[in-house]
Amino acid sequence: MKPLEHLFESEVELLVEELVDKEEHELVVFNDDVNTFDHVSKVLIKVCKHSQEQAEQCTMIIHYKGKCSVKKGSASKLKPMCESILDAGIQASIL
Length: 95
Fold this sequence. Notes:
Distance between the termini: 40 Å
Radius of gyration: 18 Å
Order of helices and strands: HEHHEHE
Mean pLDDT: 88
CATH architecture: 2-Layer Sandwich
Helix content: 55-70%
Strand order of the largest sheet: 2-1-3
Number of domains: 1
Shape: elongated
Number of helices: 4
């Protein structure tokens, strides 16, 4: 039988994980000299469910500012989106 201390520690770890996952994170896309405006816009529409206008605005911000927060949410929600954007050859990160 496990000591109560270990049970308590694992419960605390689970609660901390739940709190961290509820925190709002940002999915940020970064500018590069490789991808076209069209490619980035299409990926944002497909992955982030952006409208055409929203995707184009984000793409312009990425180009002129160097990066843009394209989606906000929990880390678990943003992780597969980030992976899809990375798989498309576009630099992205969850902050």
